What we know:
Layout: H1 18-24, H2 27-30, H3 34-50, H4 56-71, H5 84-96, H6 109-144, E1 150-155, E2 158-164, H7 165-189, E3 192-193, H8 209-215, E4 220-221, H9 225-230, H10 233-260, E5 267-268, H11 287-311, H12 324-347, E6 350-351, H13 353-358, H14 367-376, H15 381-397, H16 408-412, H17 422-425, H18 428-434, H19 443-460
Parallel strand pairs: 3-4
Antiparallel strand pairs: 1-2, 5-6
Helix pairs in contact: 3-4, 3-6, 3-8, 6-7, 6-12, 6-19, 7-10, 7-19, 10-11, 10-12, 11-12, 14-15
Amino acid sequence: MKNNNVLWAGRLEDKPDTAAFEFQSSIRVDKRLALDDILGSKVHAAMLAKGGIISDEDFKALDKAFAEMIEEQIDDSIDEYEDVHSYIEARLKERLGDVGRKIHAGRSRNDQVVTDLRLYILRILPDMCKNFLKQVDATLNTASLHLETIMPGYTHLQRAQPVTLAHWICAWETAIIRDISRFVDALKRMNECPLGSGALAGSGLPLDRAFTAKELGFERPTLNSMDSVADRDFVIEIVSDCAIMMTHLSRFCEDIVLWSSQEFGFINLADKWSTGSSIMPQKKNPDFAELIRGKAARVEGNLVTLITLMKGLPYAYDKDLQEDKEALFDSLDTLEACSEYFWQMFNSASFNKEKMKAACIGGFMEATDAADYLVRKGMPFRTAHEVVAKIVRHCIDTERKAITELPFEELHTFSEFFEEDVYTSLEPEACVAARKTSGGPAPEEVKKQIEALRARSKELAQVSR
């Protein structure tokens, strides 16, 4: 790695040795910003020419060089430079000599890097969101196939009330749609251009920041030059959004791991999304789900890294901020991969409908519906709750697994409100069908949820630069 070709070479007589220089270099992380750095520099050159700071002839030479650099591949020599900015500027100087040295007029690496970061996020995140929305759409197709696939719902990991697989999937997708909307909101907030803020106090040159912002596709310039270079709120917000979405994926994966166990047996993952054991020939492990669950901790750690990084910094730029990019890039890369693999894994799985339905029998999942039955007959709910609780205790004492195992004469002793139709009312399908409140698991309600999620997805799909 070169330490004799840095942008700050003039001030210091002695420079860090090779190992120390490599330690403080950011090129291995920030080289993915090369395209954004070229685009920012290209527009900066146009603004310098517009303001008469460089000649039109110099601008044409610079503009041509930038166009060529955009078409070329980044070569391995990039790793020899301190950062992406010094690499791009060095290539300009190789092509244009002193003309290439004019590009840095009116800017600092402080405003340059934060502009590059915003350009990078604004360039890649809309496409990521659109891919997430495609995954939502495909999974809603899976949900549509399981509107009447009965399964237990759980609280405290105890069987609670019967729902459907479609209802469960819609719960997941409601969370994911929220996650995507957070990214969309964050894109709106960060759509301001810091270029021209300089090191922290702007420039004495006649810069046209509104021109630069418009040409780079931003809505406006940032308001305050010091805040522009000190701010990493947008990085924290994006990584926070990644961490929230990864937390959701982790919880979904926990469901998958449980469902795929022999104790549950609800789901059979495709072989391509499973692994075996090096010692136990019979094993089929949900390793992809477990790994995604594990990677959530990594992204959440990135969020803690950024918040901790920022909390003690004096305002304006500090070298500590170099650490922001690795956490950001890793979070975006990890989320993108995990989301893609999770939904492929889930949508290629098959489901054991018989086991799912059988799991709704026993455990007195019909108890709430028995109380609702009594309420519909005119009994106060708190009284109905007490009556059904006594029935459940009686069933346990007499080794019955469900209220419906009690003969009507025996059931009637607990309340005269019970009639013969109670048995059909307490079947799992009837319990689900009765829950027609908005957001509930009744098939017609889940259809509405699917339609609403598709509508929200279409709205979010409009996000763009």
